[in-house]
Known about the structure:
The protein is built from 4 helices and 11 strands, in the order H-H-E-E-E-E-E-H-E-E-E-E-E-E-H. It is an alpha+beta fold.
Amino acid sequence: MTLLSTAQYLARDTRRNPRAHLVPIILSAVIAAGAIALVAYLLWPTYTTVPPSDPSRLPVSVGGTLFNVPTFAVRMKIQRHSGPQERVDLSFIYPSLEAPAAPRHYSADTVEDKVQPIDRIFLSISAHHDQLAPDIRVRTIYPRYLEQASTQIDDALSMRAFRDGSPYSGEDLFSANAPALNARCTRDDMTPGMCLSERRVDDADLTFRFPRGWLSQWRDIAGAMDRLTAQLRGPKG
């Protein structure tokens, strides 16, 4: 009522003084500015935002199979998130099987130190979409391309070469039963040979890669792959 009376008084005063019409406009602007300032003060947040840190492990679903993946083991930044994914690429320090630390930044003075011996097991987890299982491939596909002769590496590990001209030319197949191991390995050439070992877990295929030279301790490698598989699946896997 007070504001209405004031406005009526100012309107009558405006008729007596033509320049007085500026007074109600200014008064209204002051009242509106005060109201806006009061609302802004009441609604202004009083907290400060803190950037969230990455969790130590990410729940990732590959092909419908759940894996608990160490965040810093994920090699590609675009894959470093939880939820469904078609493929996840990981690396683990061997023999500790820990996730690697953040990569170093190199300058012109330290670039010569960049080349380091391979000390990691690389692992790719991908949805298999009902493709041929790795163990079936070893039993039914590989024998078609293998040489008949085999070489006994030790009392449990054997090696057979793939024939020249085959899809796996230049590679060898290493096999053992206790502990179980099947690894297809390239031969040492200009670069050291690498081995590939696959296994299926529900709806996903796990592909491990490691240097061929590590086969001198093949039992430890087989055990490391078993432990990594168990760790990634977790107690609820």
